[in-house]
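Box 3.1 A note on notation
Throughout this textbook, protein chains are presented in two layers. The first layer is the amino acid sequence; the second is a token string describing backbone geometry. Keep the layers aligned when reading.
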Amino acid sequence: MTEPYVKQETKNGIATIEFFHPAHNSLPGDLLAKLAKTIIEAGNNDEVKVIILKSGGDRTFCAGASFNELISINDAETGKLFFSGFANVINAMRKCPKFIIGRIQGKTVGGGVGVAAATDYCMATKFAAIKLSELNVGIGPFVVGPAVERKLGTSGFSQIAIDANSFYEAEWARQKGLYNQVFDTLEALDEAVQKFAENLCNYNPEAMKEMKKVFWSGTEDWDELLAERAVISGRLVLSDFTKETLKRFE
């Protein structure tokens, strides 16, 4: 696989949405926009009862935002648009009336942690360590912060946001509430995800829709909140500190 994609397959009430990018599943703006659109469409499709969200490949779930796009930002408006990409995906997941099962096969960084946190039930392999690396490059996990904090709590979120150099093991993420289950192998993960999704298809769709509203109660302001956070990140990425830091990664 070399070409980036977002694709969806619906079978027996289960919509499987998969994204891929050859750069460790890092997501540029066009892929993020397509991912958000695909999630919204699946949520509005009456044939879909539950959604599985996954990425291609077997090593990294998502390496966060596209680094090439990040280093090319030269004005505040472009910065806001760039950081709004993950905001739009998270809000699409939040407002989707169907349960979204996360299938996290490997390491996930930055925005990828936010996507995992925005799923309604998240299953991973023991290789799915997490890291919020944003402070490392002079910005911060502002956009994904609300989603991550909602799952990890303020203590867990602040720990990984401040310790931006460290990966935290999948078991730590499970204990903190990001992952609901952790499996030893990819095969075991896939089997469990499929079985879990099939079981959810037996439930009343209206009941699941109402339960999702309950679970996400208190996040009704996230359209505005995440947009405001995108502005903060867009401003910081233009700072001399961040520009100099990013040069070291080119």
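Residues 5-189 form a domain with the 2-enoyl-CoA Hydratase; Chain A, domain 1 fold (CATH 3.90.226.10). The CA atoms of residues 132 and 159 lie 10 Å apart.
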